[in-house]
Amino acid sequence: MPRVTPHDVAEVLDTDLDSVELSTFVSDANRIVNDRCEPYTGDDNALANVETYLAAHLATTKEPEVSSLTHHSTQVSINIDSKRYWNKAVMLDPTGRLDKPDRGYSTFTTGG
Fold first, then answer.
1. In the chain, N or C: fewer CB atoms in 10 Å?
2. What is the pLDDT of residue 108?
3. How far apart are CA 78 and CA 100, in angstroms?
């Protein structure tokens, strides 16, 4: 069960996405935080903050930023806010594992 609501994410994210659309990103962020961070801290408030900004980061992929528009073409660039929300989530992560998911995990590789 997510620690945050779509409303919490909308508070930090300037978006036209509705609660239903945001709830998908909240669920994804919750799963990532649970997998990567939760086993290493009992601080639910810190994890909720990470989850909020991670959901905001994920939601920015739904709304690409149009950098220029001409009669014949449209140029789309990565939303600069996406990086800002990701950096904030990483900075708030008390475990340091959000951006290093393989730290401490065994890795399976196939022989080749």
1. C
2. 42
3. 22
